[in-house]
């Protein structure tokens, strides 16, 4: 079982402002893990499968994905779908982190196999609070063995 | 034979002797005459016993002369003839006048009956007293037989004439009726007595009389009969009758014309039927030639046997080209097959087919759409002989329908786009909002950090710089941040409102029966604190049940009622009235207040999103009635508003009373 500190967090988020706010708030929640950034769905998949721009990378030993839904090239649904279909990535925990709180989209994501669905609150205090709690949550999460390889 | 009278007696014979010689000669002369005539001569005494007769009589009676002498008439005739003969002889005896035609039957010795006709006169003695009878007896048996034969023959013809049902008339050359049968007067409504002797001018118009005269004249001149001539007669009651007559010349034995005989048939009814038929035929022909639809008749092979002008126009072929043409010439394979299948079905079931959609290729190659109805055509025996049908050119209608369909699809698409647009916009706008809020917040906390460390830096600045920096740090930056924050908040609430509106247009409705009384009561209760505080009276009439989505109805009623409360006029006690009226499938609700009312120029803003009418002294984002309208529309309902500034406002909305389809997607 991997140490939670060894887990890389892949943050797939097209809006750099959001990415930075999430990163800031995670750090403030005392998350020290390595954070990898992807600005669209394709990049996220490339990172996970060490393809494209990440072809020369080594596979991260353990990954947890924070996934936005509305992204260019490939959106969050497509990323989620491909991850869950692929033997190599299907056990990687996926946390959907998006502005949408429409129940249909929440349902769709759970049906596709996401583990947690978090709506980004517009209000910043609530936003910070949500990310902080996510950070606390991540610290107690146990990641399955051997994922990402 | 004057049996009551005694026979005369005491005859003086002296004088007779004197002229014996003269008499003998005269007698011989008469005897020779008597013996040579073919008629029988006889003399009877007053008792009816034969006293004298000639040979001809002997021959007729079949007895011998000796047997016949002194034979009484009782002996050679039956009782009926005895009566007849005795009566006639008595009359001759009593009156003294001879009778020239007594007919009777005798029975000869051999039993054969003969018919005789006697001329009888009284015989007197020298004193003038009746002494007996004498007369001539003619054997008329043969004549009687001929007469009977003639009578039978005449009777046969007469009865034929009476039963043929046609009128039979004979007229003389002057035009007078000389013979008619019963039908002659019956069909014109006269009695026989009235009709006989009536001239033809009495029962026909002058015009027809002239025509008749010409016909008779021609028959007379040529001797040729006129067959089946039609003319008009006038019945006794004045109605016109149409007759069909065959007339020929009647001639006497020597071949001279003596009159005309005519057989006349009453064809009035037949003519009327023919006329009715003709009119009916004309009517149908007129209809068929004037309708805007094509009419056709096909034989069983599917070839046109009859077409009207319109179908020729539709197909662009002439009538001549159309007749005998098969559908394969103006239909492609698929449509021809479809038509053949339909015709087959009509033939097999006998049931007509209505409004069959067909594509037709005109002579010029253009394609038209047609709606065809076909039924089976049968002969008088009910045997199928072909098809008839109506073909309606629906090209224009089809085009219009297709255009409508396109419009509807476009509308639906653009409606969908608008909904999606609202949804996407409201979502995507949140992304920069998160940043705006996030980074103003970051900025504020960064400013806090600067501020708390600023005091340490103060001694290093001169007064001018110090107050400048203090101004920026404590006033300008916080003020700018305040404006940004407020604007972002407003933007946030707009986006939320749009999002709600978009969701109302998308969310699933769950129609259920709702007791509107209970629903309104609950809504009013949630506002009870406010109502009591401001002394507002809410009157709720009897409200019906409706079929609708409960949450939607709560929102509708909640919004309208809270609006009514919100915009009351503080100068008078508030009064809100909720009533409803079911009219058929719909129920109309009215929510009337005595509030401040809405100015006519503001009415168009009432249901618009983000618009608030009138004086704005109450919080709200102006979305309530926009939500209400969207919800009611999704229920197939509608809302309107009547208002008078300073008097009050009434909101009127309708909703399906109860229906499984009470809600439908907008």
Folded structure, characterized:
The complex is a heterodimer of chains A (149) and B (666). With 149 residues, chain A is of the alpha/beta class. Chain A has one domain: Rossmann fold, CATH 3.40.50.2300. Chain A contains five helices and five strands; from the N terminus they run βαβαβαβαβα. Chain A has helices at residues 16-28, 41-49, 76-85, 103-112, 124-140; strands spanning 7-12, 35-38, 62-67, 94-98, 116-119. Chain A has a five-stranded parallel β-sheet. In chain A, helix 4 links the parallel strand 4 (94-98) and strand 5. In chain A, helix 1 packs across helix 5 (124-140). With 666 residues, chain B is of the alpha+beta class. In chain B, helix 17 (516-526) packs across helix 19. A five-stranded antiparallel β-sheet of chain B has the order 2-1-5-4-3, with helices on both faces. Residues 1-8 and 659-666 of chain B have low confidence and may be disordered. The longest helix of chain B is centred in the last third of the chain and has 42 residues, at 463-504. In chain B, 45% of the residues lie in helices and 26% in strands. Chain B starts with 13 loop residues before the first helix and ends in a 10-residue tail after the last strand. Chain B contains 20 helices and 22 strands. Classes of the chains: A alpha/beta (149), B alpha+beta (666). Chains A and B meet through helix 1 and helix 5 of A and helix 14 and helix 15 of B.
In a few lines, what is going on in this structure?
The complex is a heterodimer of chains A (149) and B (666). Chain A has helices at residues 16-28, 41-49, 76-85, 103-112, 124-140, and strands at residues 7-12, 35-38, 62-67, 94-98, 116-119.
Low-confidence stretches of chain B: 1-8, 659-666
Helix content of chain A: 25-40%
Task: Please give the radius of gyration of chain B in angstroms.
Answer: 64 Å
How many structural domains are formed by the residues of chain A?
Answer: 1
- Helical content of chain B (DSSP H or I, runs of 4+): 40-55%
How large a portion of the residues of chain B is in β-strands, by DSSP E?
25-35%
On the 0 to 100 scale, the average pLDDT of chain A is 86
Biggest sheet details of chain B? 5 strands, antiparallel
Distance linking N and C termini of chain A: 14 Å
Question: What is the rounded Rg of chain A?
Answer: 14 Å
User: What is the helix/strand order of chain A?
Assistant: EHEHEHEHEH
Domains of chain B (count): 5
* Structural class category of chain B: alpha+beta
Regions with little confidence, pLDDT below 50 for 5+ residues of chain A: none
Largest interface here, residues on each chain?
Answer: A-B, 16 and 17 residues
């Amino acid at each position: 079982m991997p140490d939670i500190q060894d887990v890389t967090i892949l943050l797939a988020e097209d809006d750099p402002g959001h990415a930075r706010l999430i990163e800031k708030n995670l750090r403030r929640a005392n998350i020290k893990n390595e954070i990898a950034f992807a600005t669209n769905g394709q990049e996220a998949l490339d990172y996970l499968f060490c393809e494209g721009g990440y072809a020369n990378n080594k596979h991260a030993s353990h990954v947890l994905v924070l996934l936005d839904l509305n992204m260019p090239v490939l959106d969050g649904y497509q990323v989620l779908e491909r991850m869950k279909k692929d033997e190599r990535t299907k056990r990687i925990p996926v946390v959907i982190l998006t502005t949408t709180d429409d129940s249909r989209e929440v349902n769709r994501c759970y049906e596709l196999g996401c583990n947690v669905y978090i709506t980004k609150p517009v209000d910043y205090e609530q936003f910070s609070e949500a990310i902080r709690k996510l950070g606390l949550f991540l610290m107690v999460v146990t990641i399955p063995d051997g994922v990402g390889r | 034979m004057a049996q009551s009278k005694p026979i005369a007696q005491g005859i003086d014979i002296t004088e007779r002797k004197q002229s014996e010689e003269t008499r003998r000669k005269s007698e011989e002369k008469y005897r020779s005459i008597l013996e040579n005539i073919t008629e029988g001569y006889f003399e009877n005494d007053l008792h009816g016993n034969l006293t004298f007769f000639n040979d001809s009589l002997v021959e007729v009676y079949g007895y011998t002369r000796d047997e016949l002498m002194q034979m009484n008439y009782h002996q050679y005739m039956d009782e009926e003839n005895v009566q007849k003969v005795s009566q006639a002889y008595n009359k001759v005896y009593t009156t003294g006048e001879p009778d020239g035609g007594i007919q009777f039957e005798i029975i000869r010795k051999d039993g054969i009956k003969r018919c005789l006709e006697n001329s009888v006169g009284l015989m007197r003695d020298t004193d003038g007293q009746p002494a007996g009878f004498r007369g001539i007896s003619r054997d008329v048996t043969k004549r009687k037989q001929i007469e009977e034969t003639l009578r039978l023959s005449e009777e046969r013809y007469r009865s034929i004439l009476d039963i043929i049902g046609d009128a039979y008339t004979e007229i003389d050359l002057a035009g007078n009726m000389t013979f008619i049968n019963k039908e002659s007067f019956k069909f014109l409504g006269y009695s026989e007595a009235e009709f006989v002797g009536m001239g033809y001018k009495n029962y026909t118009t002058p015009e027809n009389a002239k025509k008749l005269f010409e016909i008779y004249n021609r028959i007379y001149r040529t001797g040729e009969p006129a067959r089946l001539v039609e003319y008009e007669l006038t019945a006794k009651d004045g109605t016109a009758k149409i007759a069909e007559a065959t007339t020929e010349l009647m001639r006497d034995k020597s071949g001279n014309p003596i009159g005309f005989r005519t057989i006349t048939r009453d064809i009035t009814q037949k003519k009327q039927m023919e006329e009715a038929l003709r009119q009916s035929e004309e009517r149908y022909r007129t209809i068929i030639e004037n309708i805007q639809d094509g009419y056709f008749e096909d034989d069983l092979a599917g070839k046109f046997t009859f077409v009207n002008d319109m179908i020729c126009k539709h197909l662009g072929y002439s009538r001549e080209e159309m007749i005998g043409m098969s559908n394969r010439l103006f239909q492609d394979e698929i449509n021809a097959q479809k038509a053949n299948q339909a015709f087959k079905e009509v033939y097999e079931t006998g049931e007509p087919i209505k409004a069959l959609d067909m594509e037709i290729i005109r002579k010029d190659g253009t394609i038209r759409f047609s709606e065809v109805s076909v039924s089976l055509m049968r002969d008088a025996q009910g045997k199928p002989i072909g098809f008839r049908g109506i073909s309606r050119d629906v090209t224009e209608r089809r085009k219009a329908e297709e255009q409508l369909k396109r419009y509807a699809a476009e509308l639906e698409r653009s409606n969908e786009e608008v909904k999606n647009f609202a949804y996407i916009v409201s979502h995507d706008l949140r992304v920069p909002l998160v940043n705006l809020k996030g980074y103003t917040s970051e900025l504020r906390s960064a400013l806090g950090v600067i501020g708390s460390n600023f005091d340490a830096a103060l001694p290093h600045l001169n007064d001018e710089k110090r107050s400048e920096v203090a101004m920026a740090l404590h006033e300008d930056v916080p003020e700018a941040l305040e404006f940004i924050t407020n604007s972002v908040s407003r933007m946030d609430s707009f986006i939320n409102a749009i999002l709600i509106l978009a969701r109302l247009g998308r969310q699933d409705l769950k129609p259920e029966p709702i007791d509107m009384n209970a629903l309104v009561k609950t809504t009013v209760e949630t506002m009870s604190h406010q109502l009591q505080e401001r002394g507002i009276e809410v009157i709720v009439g009897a409200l019906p049940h409706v079929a609708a989505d409960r949450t939607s109805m709560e929102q509708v009623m909640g919004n309208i009622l809270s609006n009514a409360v919100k915009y009351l006029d503080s100068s008078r006690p508030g009064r809100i009235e909720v009533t409803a009226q079911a009219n058929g499938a719909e129920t109309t609700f009215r929510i009337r207040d005595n509030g401040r009312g809405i100015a006519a120029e503001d009415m168009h803003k009432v249901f618009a999103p983000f618009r608030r009418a009138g004086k704005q002294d109450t919080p709200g984002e102006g979305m309530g009635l926009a939500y209400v309208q969207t919800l009611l529309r999704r229920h197939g309902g509608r809302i309107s508003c009547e208002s008078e500034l300073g008097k009050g406002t009434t909101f009127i909305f309708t909703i399906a009373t109860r229906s499984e389809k009470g809600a439908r997607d907008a």
